[in-house]
Amino acid sequence: MLDFKLSNLAVVGAGIGGCSAAYFARKHFPDMKLTIYDSQERIGGRILTCKVAGRPIELGATFFNRINRTLLDILKTEKLETTPFERMNFAVWNGSNFVFRSNKESLTTFLKLLLEYRFSLTRTYLLLRKVSSQVAQLYQEERKNPSDMLQIFESTLIDKWKRKTFYEALKERNIGQAFIDEIATPITRIIYSQNEDIGAFAGLSSLIGIYSGETYSFAEGNSILPIHLAQASSATIKMGKKVDAIEKTPKGNYRVHTENDVMVFDNVIIAAPLEIANIKFDGLSLKRCGAQPYQSVYRSAMRGVFKPEYFNLDNSINFPNTILTTKETGPITQYSIQKASHTESVVTISSTEPVNRTIFTDIFKNSPVSIFDHYWKAAYPIFKPLSRLSPTRIDKGLMYLNAIEPMVSSMETSVLSAKNAVRMLLAEKLE
Ligand SMILES: Cc1cc2nc3c(=O)[nH]c(=O)nc-3n(C[C@H](O)[C@H](O)[C@H](O)COP(=O)(O)OP(=O)(O)OC[C@H]3O[C@@H](n4cnc5c(N)ncnc54)[C@H](O)[C@@H]3O)c2cc1C
Fold first, then answer.
1. Cβ < 6 Å from ligand 1: which residues?
2. pLDDT score for 89
3. pLDDT value at position 381?
């Protein structure tokens, strides 16, 4: 731990990226003056939990898994309680039938998949094993001397996926169309609201998330994570303060402008996608690889007595809790059904277009009560093949965490990028 008493750091964005950047910065720089800015009045960004009858319901980032090493390290250190995310009870809906239904036991589900999709399943498993070892290589590279996430990606075999679509990656391995349509694409739809034309690494990591065993969320709701990290950092948090401009001074510091104040910092970490952040840069040249389009997502939830007949189900006790969709179903990418009481359930629908209210009247036996409607204008990138990623390091003392988002977007990658950016700032101080 090193003590650079004179340095200070501004973090733009109080999502998981910004809050973990402040957390890691505090660990390396105990006396550093830390300031987090967020244009909204809450901490969390794309992590947002609402409570229904005391139970957390996630409107944004929902789960993580046991290969998310950076997140798991934080959980262990900070003793944050997690809960397994119930996911084996799923079904895939094509708009009129279920094309696949899981079994309660994961082994039986696996055997069912094997029987149905045979070599496509085994080939997919082999491919995912390979990609998982490439991800492990990424962590190894990251543990070495700190370097830009761009270089870390480029030094691993993960980099080769960025020029392909997920569909091309699967077809190269002779994975059959039925498996792509009925299993692989419904998974990319539930994770990133995108079909098989999604960028290969984003598509493959969606499958890895499911293949690598149990998934988790935070017992108190995922919003606890960024809130806890922001508190642990003891940063000054400026809520409702949009950063309008970052200006490099002749001395090499940064003036951070909001509507009604200007402060000078030695270091700045930008932890929000620049496409959304709308920040003006003065005295800086940004090496960016084109604007990244983002996907809109609508999440709506209603509570009432669920009508299993809507999905041609006759057994109201054993209905799936997660319904994935094939691309024939159109904009609805997921239905989630959670028991709220002995008789009632909360049904959450995710869609790339506004959800027609009549669906909810059809899905319940009684007149349902609205719980929330949330619109994510920019949920995650629309992942396409890329020629290059933008670097994390914009200039000395100025880092951009979301530079890697066009390749993959998750809580883990935001935290990993934050950890690495802080280590790069530390390395700059030692230069
Ligand atoms: C519906 C949905 C489901 C998802 N599911 C999962 C999942 O299951 N698992 C998973 O790991 N990931 C999931 N993700 C992705 C994950 O939520 C994101 O990758 C991650 O939370 C991004 O964090 P971030 O801190 O990088 O960005 P953000 O969370 O977007 O934070 C950026 C913050 O910056 C603020 N800001 C923007 N511009 C400015 C400015 N000019 N000045 C000041 N503040 C500014 C914003 O208000 C925001 O709070 C999901 C995302 C969505 C939307």
1. 12-18, 37-40, 45-47, 60-64, 242-243, 271-272, 276-279, 297, 376, 379-380, 401-402, 409-412, 414
2. 83
3. 97
State how far the Cα of 200 lies from the Cα of 159, in Å rounded to an integer. 10
pLDDT in tens, 63-111: 898 888 999 999 999 999 988 876 668 999 999 999 999 887 888 888 9
Domains annotated for the chain, with CATH where assigned, are 8-48+221-291+389-430 (3.50.50.60), 82-218+293-381 (3.90.660)
The residue whose CA has the least distance to atom 5 of ligand 1 is 61
| Average pLDDT, integer, range 198-224 | 89
| Residue with CA at minimum distance from ligand 1 atom 35 | 13
The residue whose C-alpha atom lies closest to atom 38 belonging to ligand 1 is 277
Query: Over the stretch 26-58, which tens digit does the pLDDT of each residue have?
Result: 998 898 999 999 999 999 999 999 987 788 889
**Could you write out the three-class secondary structure of 119-153?**
HHHHHHHHHHHHHHHHHHHHHHHHHCCCCCHHHHH
Amino acid letter for position 397: G
45 CA distance to ligand 1 centroid (A)?
Answer: 5
Q: In what order do the strands lie in the sheet with 215-218?
A: 64-65, 215-218, 82-85
CB atoms within 10 A of CB 179: 21
**Edge-to-edge strands, sheet with 393-395:** 236-239, 33-38, 8-12, 267-270, 398-400, 393-395
